[in-house]
Amino acid sequence: MRGFVTIFNELADSISEEALEKMPYLHAAITETLRLYPAVPVDAKICFSDDTLPDGFSVRKGDMVCYLPYAMGRMKLIWGDDTEEYKPERWLDENGEFRKESPFKFTAFQAGPRICLGKEFAYRQMKIFSAVLLHCFEFKLSDEKKPVNYRTMINLHIDGGLHIRTFHRHGN
């Protein structure tokens, strides 16, 4: 029997760029996850010069401006009444194609001149990783009744970890 590492590597190598482009639902599911659970839940910037924000608020050079991607991903004003619902379909158009939102609305990768240069690479890696793992394994929470609580730090953490059970999918 071949080792898991060999199987994973072969499967990951077999996923072409064309195949990745034909995974709009997976792209939507990853984006919806990042909307609700951004890796960086709180972010701050220092003003380099006096400026006026889009809402008319004035900031001065040296001021710190913070924004909260975690909270923004849950705002009804931004995402609608179903904001708390995990709904990858919100990212798909009527043809099932991925529909981008403004990076100022979906801030997981920041926006403007500070937008993450590795955004497309990160999506590519997340898609490959997800496709390989979901092809080979089924995942279940160890205790489905235990609440999952998050800790806001520099990165979003799950308090006490996320304990899961994995099951090998047959035929892999």
Automatic annotation (TrEMBL):
Requisite cofactors: heme
Residues that hold heme according to the record: C116
The keyword Ribonucleoprotein is assigned to this record: no
Lipid metabolism recorded as keyword: no
Listed InterPro entries: Cyt_P450, Cyt_P450_E_grp-IV, Cyt_P450_sf
Family: Belongs to the cytochrome P450 family.
Protein name: Cytochrome P450
Native source organism of the sequence: Acer negundo (Box elder)
Lineage: Eukaryota, Viridiplantae, Streptophyta, Embryophyta, Tracheophyta
